Amino acid sequence: MKPWTHGRLAHRSAAPSTGEHTLEVVRVEGVVVNQILSGTLQGAVDYVQDHGELAVVLEGSAVVDVAGERLELAAGAWVLLPAGTPHRLVSTAPRTNWLTVHLGVAP
Asked: Which domain does 89 fall in, by range?
């Protein structure tokens, strides 16, 4: 067995027309990396997670409210959310492609 691995992210064209599709890329020692492909949201989605999260927009755009501040995230933008931080995903452009890194995930 090799001590390393590799792969390829899904193309943004695989995004659903509405909602989101999450693909686990890798899970190792309390860290989970996901690719999220977003379509148009039916409405805002509220989150409070028990793990930290780094979210990076690779392609497309999104609007996120964190602690009363509205963040307009375009390609290349990222946000780091410590565990327990309430946030709201307000909207996503069709075919938005994200990479998220979850930190401190229980095994």
From this structure: 14-103
pLDDT, tens digit (0-9, with 9 covering 90-100), for 76-90:
999 999 999 999 999
What's the mean per-residue pLDDT of the chain?
Answer: 95
Give me the sheet containing 69-74, strands edge to edge.
Answer: 45-47, 87-92, 61-66, 69-74
Q: What single-letter amino acid sits at 46?
A: D
Domain count, the chain: 1
User: What is the reported pTM?
Assistant: 0.92
Assign residue 60 the CATH number of its domain.
2.60.120.10
To which residue do tokens 């193309």 refer?
A: 11
In a domain, 83, yes or no: yes
